Each structure stands twice: as C-alpha cells, then as structure tokens.
Amino acid sequence: MTEVNEPFVVSQQEFADALDRFRGIRDSSGALVFLIGAGCSKCAGLPLTNELTDRVLRDDEIDCFSKRILFAVKEEFGSGTDANIEDYLSEIVDLLAIADRRAERGVKENTVVAGNDSYTAKQLSDAIIQLKQSIAKAIDKEVSIATHLKFVTSVHQPLRVGRQGNSQSVDYLVLNYDTIVEDSLAMAKIHYTDGLRGGATAWWDSDAFNAEGVSARVFKLHGSINWYQFPDDPSPRRIGTSIKLENQANMPLLIWPSSTKYQEAQLDPFAHLLNRAREALRPSSGSQRLLVICGYSFGDKHINFEIDRALRESNRNLTIAAFTHENEPFGLLQDWHNDIRVRDQVLVFSNRGFFHGDVVLNSEEDLPWWKFEILTSILNGEA
Prior knowledge:
It is a single chain. By secondary structure, this protein is α/β, with parallel strands linked by helices. It has two domains: about 15-45 and about 140-380, TPP-binding domain (Rossmann fold, 3-Layer(aba) Sandwich), CATH 3.40.50.1220; about 50-140, no CATH class. It is about 35% helix and about 20% strand. The protein contains eleven helices and 16 strands. It has helices at about 15-30, 50-55, 65-75, 85-105, 120-140, 145-155, 180-185, 270-280, 300-310, 330-340, 370-380; strands at about 30-35, 110-115, 115-120, 170-175, 190-195, 195-200, 200-205, 215-220, 225-230, 235-240, 255, 290-295, 320-325, 345-350, 355, 360. The protein has a nine-stranded mixed beta sheet, with helices on both faces. It has a five-stranded antiparallel beta sheet with strand order 6-7-10-9-11. The longest helix has 20 residues, at about 85-105.
C-alpha cells in the first residue's frame, strides 16, 4: 500500500494561530512524549480495531473449539455494542482466570461456561494463544512506513530554523502491537531502545531504558507481535522471522488487549512498562513536558487514569495536545475542557474546532489535522 500525504492548508487565521500555539509549546517544552494509538497505523495499511476484529472473526485457521468460544463471547456482548476483538479476548482471559482459580482451590467442577457450553482451562488457554496469533497475522504484513519515517525524522529535528533539537530523549507510549514506530526510528538512524537488547532476535533487559546516548524510548504498553514468552520466563524474547523454534506455535505472544483486567497489567514486562510510562508523563522539577496524543480514542481506562492523574499532579508543568477525530471534545477530553483546574493545560484539535482553556473555535468544515499523516506535516512545519 502506498501512503498518500494529504495537503493541509488552514484557511482561517484563527486556526493557523492555534497551530502556532502548539508549535510554541513544543519549542518551549523541555521534554516531548507521544501517545500513539491504532489510528496512527492506518495510513501504513494496517487495520483499525474494528477491521482487525472482522479479520479475526473470519480467520479459518482458528480451530473449532477456539472459534466456538470466540463466537459465544461475542454473542454475550450482543449486536448493539461497539465491542471488538480486544474486548472478546479480555473476556476469555477473565474466564481462564476463573477456571484457574477454581482449579487452584480444589473445586471439583472447574470448567467455565461461555454460551451454551463449558470449557476447560486448557481450551481457554489454547483459544487465547490462537486469537493472539490471528491478531499478529493480520498485523504482520508488508507496509509502507513513509509517513512514519517522516514523522520520527520531524520529531527528532529542529521544528524551526535556528532552533536546536531536543537534548532529552523523546518518549513514545505505543498502544499498538505493530512495530512501525521502531522500524521507522531504525530506518532514520535514531538511537532508540524498546527494552530489548539484541537485534532481530533479542531479550528483555529493562536497564536498556537507562542507557546513555539514547534519543528515543519506545514503551510498548500492550506488547508486540514479535514478543514471545518462553517456558518459565515471563520476560519477552523477540524472535527473528527467519528463525523457527520447536513448539513456537504454542508459545504465548506477549500482547495484552487494552480492556484486559487491571491484574494482568501487574505482570512483567507490562508492570515495568506502565511504571516507565508514569515516569515519562511526569516532568522533572521546574521543567515543562508536552504530551501529544494521536490515533487514540480514549478507550483504555487504565491509560486514561494514568494520564489524568499525571495531568492533575503535574503542578501545571504537563501540557497535553490531543488530536481527535471527534467533532468536539468528548469523554475525558470534555471532562478536562470543562474543568477549570486543568483546562488551560489541554489543547484539543478536533475535527470541527480547537479548544484550549477559554478559547473555543468552531469550524463549519472538517479540520483533518487529527490524521496522522497531516499531524506529521504539521510537525515538519509544512502546515
């Protein structure tokens, strides 16, 4: 798939001024953090969550027991909801936790019911493995990283002529399972770490985040399609595509859906990554930090909680610039905009306006600055 970067011209001066306000905050911030959601991978040819859901539901390589469990859970959610594959997978993870707890407590009947049938812990575990493999298969495909390459290059170069680039490492809080951000950083020859040491095949070492000379840190908060869990080792290993290991098909992929219960987030490496994300969202004493949110629909309660807490505890040193496809602030963004205690710290670039503190600018036309390719152009000084 070829990426097409749409030209973006702001016809009204007030919206051009809003972009200048964003650039000014970026220039003056001591540290830069990006929260990147699934919407940022769409321009590269990867599916959005609803598209990913359809592909997994149609995957003929999932065996009949796992497919039956999947559709039983889907049926329980009902047709009138916006539930997706991450919700279904989370539900099965919860069912497995119940089955495991019953077995640990010596309960004679330790199966759990989904739909009209009962399933063992083994069947549920197998279903989870197969669904994760199906997700990985739908994402692990040839993509064009032209926009992402331009994005990371723009982030790690001066925004304006005469200004020096960021002296601090840029943090990327990535919610996607794909590897486009890491691949783009490597292609741009930007020294980064994702917590693994090695190359195409690598092992987890959390100390890698503390390495000197690193220009970017990538925190894969939900895991990655090339992270595998070896027996008796909870830490991820990255396995090169040219390597085939014995029993690899049955090795768990270390990806966790966003709606998985909080207890799952306490497992390493996810607990460590979440702690790192908390640190990334907190400015050091006397410094300013800018969090740019793009491609994210605020559907992860755990992530929302951490951002909200960081914002309120920042002593006004954390600023958030959120780019959203909604026509106006919605959900958590609306809460922030209506809250006099934090509203001045939040800039919302919506599809039909700009909202910052007491400033409310409405547009009768779409403002697609929330699209990742257009945000990239803005960061590159083209809009």
